[in-house]
Amino acid sequence: MTDVVERFVDDFDHHDPAIGPVAHDVYRAMRDRCPVAWSDRYGGFWVVNGYDEAHMGLRRYDLFSTSPSVSVPAFHLDRPMLPMEVDPPVHNKYRALITPVFSPPRMLALEGTIRATATALIDAFVGRGECEFFSEFAEPLPVAIFTAMMGLDASEVPRFLAWKNAILHGMGQDPEIPKRATGELEVYLYALIGERKGEPLDDLLSVLIQAEVDGEQLTDDEVYDSAFLLFLAGLDTVAASISLQFLHLAQHPELRDRLVADSSLIPDAVEEMLRFESLVIAGRTVTEDTDVLGVPMKQGDRIVMNTVAADRDPRQFADPDSVMFERNPNRHMAFGVGPHRCAGSHLARIELRIAYEEVHRRIPTYRLAPGAEVHRHADNVHGIDRVPLVWDA
Fold first, then answer.
1. Can you give the residue ranges of every domain in the chain?
2. 322-366, pLDDT tens digit by residue?
3. Which homologous superfamily does the CATH classification assign to the domain defined by 2-71+85-390?
4. Are 281 and 309 a contacting pair, CB within 8 Å?
5. 257 half-sphere exposure, CB direction, 13 A CA radius
6. CA distance to 95, 104, 355, per residue, from 100 (Å)
7. What mean pLDDT is predicted for residues 33-46?
8. CA–CA separation, 111 and 106 (whole Å)
9. CA-CA-CA-CA torsion for 365, 371, 372, 378, nearest 10 degrees?
């Protein structure tokens, strides 16, 4: 294990499929050896692994810009994903278009729908005493809610997920994979934008089409750029969070049993598990010569803020590799910080809370299937492909 970790530390590539299973070992070694590291991959980029440094970097958009891309290497786009890949004050104008849609009151109004969806999914497998938790619950729960919000055809979900997986998780296999998927998704979304312009619906895509910035309606390109970002985020991050968090709980029955016995722990448990299983490695571009922890950086350098590593920084969190539901304070960066903080965080928290409530109420003895092999992946967004669970039916 030590040799593997050292190899990754010396030649860091978050897209390498082999890094997933040892990611936290790699990040721990990087924090200890080089809180600010350099990798020669993808033309070279910096990696910030410490909490204070990443927190500063995500806030200081004047020094570390989201333009031209939040991905290292950049997504195959000619224009920025809006509003993520533009900074204030331009960012504020586009962010304001979607903020009301994801406001706490509107998200709370979805609680009944989210709970009914979770209940129906559990109904389908609870009597079997086993399930593949990722594909039967963790993924379809947030995907069903998001596709309805976007006005996407639910029958097309397998194709949507294939595009999302190729774009977000295909780089380590072949750089052409995300490029091809982006091209196919572009054709689909532009066609859908054309349909909604002719026949608007009560969905997020129609909101974008009818929105105005500085008194002008968004162009089709601007609608597409915003929809592309929402598509990737809405289909991936919550599913990854649910699956990784329940994998850990399934492997630690003492934690699971506490939640079964006392549901009042769930809100704090969700926050702690968000910290423990942070997902996102966020790319930035240095806007002027500066230094981080005494390390000089040049204008134009690419840099990633590794919140996955930062949220286990012992300088910020006592015993960071242990789950403590009562952790207070718990200033994790699972949703980012600063102007680009995740707009969908309110929805994500509700979906996670309901998942915890319903699963622990109805399947209190779930555990990882004996002999099951699970494989974590890293990439820009951490995740896992399958979580086989069993329980006492």
1. 2-71+85-390
2. 999 999 999 999 999 999 999 999 999 999 999 999 999 999 999
3. Cytochrome P450 (1.10.630.10)
4. no
5. 4
6. 9, 9, 24
7. 93
8. 9
9. 120
Find the angle CA(161)-CA(238)-CA(284) to the nearest 5 degrees. Answer: 90
User: Residue with structure tokens 């049993």?
Assistant: 257
Question: Can you read off the two tokens belonging to residue 292?
Answer: 């981080």
8 A C-beta contact, residue 138 and residue 243: yes
**SS3 of 89, please?**
coil
The contacts of residue 342 (CB under 8 Å, 6+ apart) are 233, 237, 335, 336, 348
Given a contact cutoff of 8 angstroms between Cβ atoms, the answer to whether 176 and 165 are in contact is: no
Give the pair of three-digit tokens for residue 386.
Answer: 């399958």
Contact 228, 81 (CB under 8 A): yes
The two structure tokens encoding residue 76 = 């195959």
Return the structure tokens found at 259: 């939640």
Helix/strand/coil for 59: helix
Mean pLDDT of 254-267: 98
